[in-house]
Amino acid sequence: MKAKTVVRSVVGVVVGAVVWMIGFYTLAALLAMLWPDFAQHGRRFMTDGVFTFTTAMAVCNLVFWVLAEIFAGWLAMKTARRREAIRVLAGLIGLYLAAMHIALYWPRFPWWYNLLVVIPAVPAVLFGAKLAANVEASVDSGVLV
């Protein structure tokens, strides 16, 4: 593997990981501007570490995590252009979320929330990368998928 490819892969993983975290918090902040009750529960979680979100609010958080994971996979694939880099990113996100939500935070969140944060993480990153690859392939071939 060429040095340029390695660097591009590492940059893709780093960019994907950063975008994943920023993406979730950006979506949550946007919703907090539109839904004051969500903002109140979010502040409580950030200051006291207490999960007081309603089911609807928790579902919004789950959707934000998946959207952030899809975008992270998409951007990482556009940057790295290598499936191996996407697998590394998906593995890192999956392991991080499993450690946090299965091992560390299990008693702090509802069981269903913990599982629904962890289970779709890796497939969502891979799906985002597949979307990026499909768009690139369709542009190269002149056919839109």
Topology, please?
Layout: H1 3-34, H2 36-48, H3 55-80, H4 83-104, H5 111-118, H6 121-141
Helix pairs in contact: 1-2, 1-3, 1-4, 3-4, 3-6, 4-5, 4-6
Account of the 3D structure:
This protein is an all-alpha fold. The chain has one domain (3-141). The protein contains 6 helices and no strands. The mean pLDDT is 92.
Summary keywords:
145 residues; mainly alpha; 6 helices; 84% helix; elongated
Average residue pLDDT: 92
Helix amount, in percent? over 70%
Structural class: mainly alpha
The number of distinct structural domains comes to 1
The percent range for strand residues is: under 5%
Ends distance: 30 Å
Strand tally = 0
**Uncertain ranges:** none
Biggest sheet overview? none
What gross morphology would you assign? Answer: elongated
Radius of gyration: 17 Å
Q: Tally the helices.
A: 6
**SSE series:** HHHHHH
In short:
The protein is mainly α and 145 residues long. The chain has helices at 3-34, 36-48, 55-80, 83-104, 111-118, 121-141.
